[in-house]
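tool_call predict_complex ligand=protoporphyrin IX containing FE
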Amino acid sequence: MPAPPGFRLPPPLQVAWLIKDPAGFYEAGRRRYGPVFQVRFPGLPPEACVASAELAEEVFAVDGGAGRAGDIRRTFVGPLVGEESLLCLDREPWWRHRRLISPPLHGRAVASWRDTIAEIAAAEVAGWPAGTPFALRTRMERITLEVIMRVVFGIRDAERLSRLRVLLPELIALGGSAALLRLPPKTRERALSSPALLRMGALPTTRYVRARDAVDTILYQEIARRRAAPIPGATDVLSQLVAARDEHGEPLTDQELRDELMTLLQAGHETTATALAWTFERLLRTPEALDTLCEELTVDDDGPYLGAVVKEALRARPVILGAPRTLDEPVRIGGYDIPAGWYVSASIPLILSDPDVFPEPGEFRPERFLGENAAGANKGWVPFGGGRRYCAGAQLATLEMRVIVSEVLRRVRLTAVRPGPERPRLKNVTLVPARLTEAVAWPVNARFGSVGVGGV
Ligand code: HEM
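tool_result ok
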């Protein structure tokens, strides 16, 4: 069997096309070559993209043996999150971390954060300008950052919180900047560790190391406090991770805890803010859906339509481009042999627009996830990836989305600044709305017993 067909363009031109028009690039691949096709990016092995919901399961099945997800991520985000991060580990070390991290991010622990998330959202909305355009994604980032600091890191001290409110956005911006991410790995390593280069305060790499060291100091202090004096009944992730023991009765080391906190910050903050920005971007351009949702919110602040809106937003505007794995052994998918050493990737936006599973995929239609339609739609719903490496924070992310959408819409009426849809723009491996969801907030109409925007 042949390897999958693909574009004949040289790799630098493929990456240029991807950056200019991410949705169009992958769409063209599916249109020309079908549900399994090959793409090439400079300096990386060939990648087999899988574009149908049915075949996606075969990609995720490689987590059982032939494929590793950590390998690729280590190249890109290793320096940001550390070597002991769940994102970058594979095989047994990954499994040990995953078993320890999963319980604090599931079930009752997550449900117990609802009120805190609602309070954070309400406080943020109260400060929004009335009648003046602003970028909703920036506001969403403030909320999701606060959620990470309070329910994941479990920080209560007001002074530490206010220092992190300055340091973390700086760290994330510098860490995600092209200056750092696009450097060849060896040059980057040198810039991050050479004492001579680290004396040059204007270099982005030096500024990054300084911000990271300042954040690390706070995180290590927080870890030491939690070890010395556990907070009884605390449900934050750090408290639970400090108390967790593996099957040999061993706890996570300080370094492992620090790397996992950084992982949850990097994996959970911008992704959720972007997903929220898209949810509002879609709602503001689909008045029937917005009206139905606002109607439901008058009687139920976490009803079925809200759940369906969140699912449909994650489907119609997925945040992550793909869930790639490095192959240690050849696999056969969709009639093609994909050689060892290649990447194989579930192409999330293509799977979520597979017309066999999501009829008229371009339409924003939360009803797909309600009633008898739901079973089929749920099967192809992969915004959080799949297999063993399925997003560890999916429950927290969807709770945040439901609570924050509800808090916002019960407090303000939002309108779009421009009627046309915002186009997806590539930011690292995430797809953000090109204008960051430009909107205007107005005092809410009487049906919610007006709370009003701050300053109105
Ligand atoms: C809407 C928001 C989010 C989206 C769309 C998203 C999406 C994803 C995707 C696609 C993956 C890769 C899955 C795969 O390779 O099969 C992933 C992994 C991961 N996510 Fe999320 N995520 C979100 C929010 C969060 C949050 C809030 C957290 C935690 C605070 C989080 C933590 C993680 C971690 C730790 C992994 C790595 C899991 C592993 O390799 O075992 N994510 N996420």
